[in-house]
Amino acid sequence: MRDYTATATRSGNWWAVEVQGLPDQYVNATQGATWAEAQEMAEDLVRLTHEFAGIDEDYTVILRPGDERVSHALEDLAAARERQKAADAAEDEALRRAARALTRHGFTVRDAAKLLGISYQRVSQLAPRRTAA
Q1: What's the average model confidence in pLDDT over 101-121?
Q2: How many CB atoms lie within 10 A of CB 67?
Q3: I want to staple 103 with a disulfide (CB 3.0 to 4.6 A). Which of 26, 52, 65, 127 is the partner?
Q4: Which long-range contacts (C-beta less than 8 Å, at least 24 apart) are formed by 110-115?
Q5: Whole-angstrom distance, CA of residue 106 vs CA of residue 91
Q6: Taking all residues of the chain, what is their mean pLDDT, rounded to a whole number?
Q7: Is the full-model pTM beyond 0.85?
């Protein structure tokens, strides 16, 4: 699988797109009126180049903004989302442990729910009662 990076820069009413990594003798630029169209056009350009050059391999085209400030802002957002995902997972695990600890120590699911700020049904899911075998 090959990844092509395409860079889009605003030029008037259009996104000017340059695709990196195409063979030298082929056109590596296209344009689109919208970001979605710029992505489609970059993908079409790579597809056509593969057809004409006889390249038979799977690929993806990743469209990135040409403006470094925008790219950095998007990278910061992606990093923040990853941190949030990790924090959410940690919270879920802590909630599960807390629900189990409360119910094991005599709290009813309703009392545990009140302490945890969730529904009693959710406490029952997180800390199901053990049935005698």
Answers
A1: 96
A2: 13
A3: 127
A4: none
A5: 23
A6: 95
A7: no
